[in-house]
Amino acid sequence: MKKSRCIIFGGGGFIGSHLVKSLVNKGYSIYVFTLGSKHEQNNLKNVIKHINLIKGDFNDANSLRKFIKPGDIIFDLVASSVPSSSFASPVDEINKHIYPHVNLFEVAFQKKVKKIIFLSSGGGVYGEKKIMPISELSLTKPISPHSIAKLTIEYYLQYFSRLYRIPILIYRVSNAYGPRQIPKDGFGIIPAMFFNILRKKRPILFDHGKIIRDFIYIDDLTEAIAMSFDKKNKFDVYNLGSSKGTSLIMLYKKIKEITKSNIEPLYQPKRSFDVDKNVLDISRISHEFNWTPMTDLNTGLQNTWKWLNSQN
């Protein structure tokens, strides 16, 4: 049986490029919709012979209409902001984050696609919680324009799914890390720590390093998506993380040991959008698909450090 085309928006990024590899390994026909930057091309160089690169603008509805076909499976992995940058202009968050995604969904449903997969924020949409781990049934209470936008997109997807009766899968992802993740403002505490060490700078730990996060290695994340997305035919939401909490101070101690660094962190107060603790309950996706994360934090950090050194 011929498999549907998988159209991946954001397929040249950190998570996207790893997901492309996982889907190629499972025999899917992959189309990556991209602006074609050198960074994206470099991320995809090991699978470039097995995929189709389509240059186009995610914000251009005409490009989307020309390319998307009935029966396609749409992966929306595009990220335009992070919590720390979204405070600068909530209006930009609406124009640059919410509108383009809703526009994509509208075109996709008009074209009668088979399914849409959206990566949301497991660290943002739930907000501050006292009881851990956090299940998919927990009340959502986002505390930044970025996470408000993510949840708004989820609501639009739920609406479109009811209207057009097309399956939607939403994965609320914890803190993903691993090779190919580069430190940009607000993106990835792990690569930020590693890069600071490489540059002999003191990493910043907010709230004196007491903040607890759920870290999932990129290979575990993409394998979970690749093995589950085509087995569901309704609207569903899944948490996707490790279900293990690690404080930032403990994380940095592990990184210091791996890098053999003696650089001490710089402690700063907690930011307004930092929740004290975020650990996801992954029992639902684990039970339904017999999946469990295979990479412990130490191994994942070692793999990441090895990759970073290979880039310098």
Account of the protein in words:
Pfam families: Epimerase. It is a single chain. With 312 residues, this protein is of the alpha/beta class. The protein has a domain of 198 residues: NAD(P)-binding Rossmann-like Domain (Rossmann fold, 3-Layer(aba) Sandwich), CATH 3.40.50. It has eleven helices and twelve strands. α1 links the parallel β1 and β2. The longest helix has 21 residues.
Largest sheet, described in full? 7 strands, parallel
Mean pLDDT across all amino acids? 92
Structural class: alpha/beta
| Parts with pLDDT < 50 across at least 5 consecutive residues | none
What is the element string, with H for helices and E for strands?
EHEHEHEHHEHEEHEEHEEHEHH
Helix content: 25-40%
Based on the structure given, which CATH architecture of the domain at 5-176 and 216-241 is correct? 3-Layer(aba) Sandwich
Short description:
This is NAD-dependent epimerase/dehydratase domain-containing protein. This protein has 312 residues and is α/β, with parallel strands linked by helices.
Primary descriptors:
312 residues, alpha/beta, Rossmann fold, 11 helices, 40% helix
